[in-house]
Design brief:
α1 packs parallel to α2 and α2 runs parallel beside α3. By secondary structure, the chain is mostly helical. β2, α3 and β3 form a beta-alpha-beta unit. The longest helix is centred in the middle third of the chain and has 30 residues. Bound molecules: NADP nicotinamide-adenine-dinucleotide phosphate. NADP nicotinamide-adenine-dinucleotide phosphate (NAP) binds next to loops. GO terms for molecular function: oxidoreductase activity. InterPro entries: Fungal_SecMetab_SDRs, NAD(P)-bd_dom_sf, SDR_fam. Pfam families: adh_short. It comes from Labrus bergylta (ballan wrasse).
């Protein structure tokens, strides 16, 4: 396993391209086994406060960016996938960090108390991006999945 730290703005094509080059130079011929799209912006935008700008910014960072970061890193993931068999992180995987707040089923009763048109909508759309990627990349041996979060929530609850 290799460990490196770098910064990137996932909403900036040039920045993603620079990160890609940096990662490519580190992983070399082995490719990239796992891409985790974790970056996101959150906000509380109820029916009174939601704006077109809040909707579009959340969609751009939380939904569009994970798709295009994945597209950018696809050659590295395909290189890793070609070196192994089966399906999983040992081979190649894209993990999109979503949220239970992106679940339409969860948006009832108490689950509807958290008001954010922008965040909830962007994460619901991210789930569909993930499913589309899974449908397209399964034949390459690249696992694509959403997780509701990476670790304990702000209240210390389990994953
Ligand atoms: N916290 C929870 O309870 C919870 C629950 C469910 C799901 N999630 C999801 O888990 C993930 C992480 O959540 P968190 O609580 O750690 O969120 P957070 O504390 O708000 O951190 C979000 C991270 O995303 C980065 N980011 C935002 N816009 C970016 C951009 N354009 N380019 C690159 N990085 C950007 C932020 O960087 P800067 O600080 O530099 O802006 C920050 O490091 C998110 O996808 C979130 O939706 C969190």
């Amino acid at each position: 396993m290799k460990f490196a730290v770098m910064s990137a703005d996932v909403d900036n094509e040039q920045s993603v391209s620079s990160a890609l080059q940096e990662v490519a130079s580190i992983v070399g011929n082995e490719g990239l086994n796992c891409l985790i799209n974790n970056a996101a912006i959150g906000n509380t935008t109820d029916l009174n406060t939601v704006t077109p700008e809040a909707m579009m910014k959340s969609f751009q960072v939380n939904t569009v960016a994970p798709l295009f970061v994945t597209k950018a890193f696809l050659p590295l993931l395909q290189t890793a996938a070609a070196r192994s068999s089966g399906m999983g992180i040992h081979r190649a995987a894209v993990i999109n960090v979503s949220s239970i707040l992106g679940s339409i089923t969860h948006n009832w009763a108490e689950g509807a108390n958290f008001k954010s048109y922008a965040y909830r909508t962007s994460k619901a759309a991210l789930n569909m991006v993930t499913r589309c990627l899974a449908a397209d990349l399964g034949s390459d041996g690249i696992l694509c999945m959403s997780l509701p979060r990476l670790g304990p929530d702000r209240h210390g609850g389990p994953l």
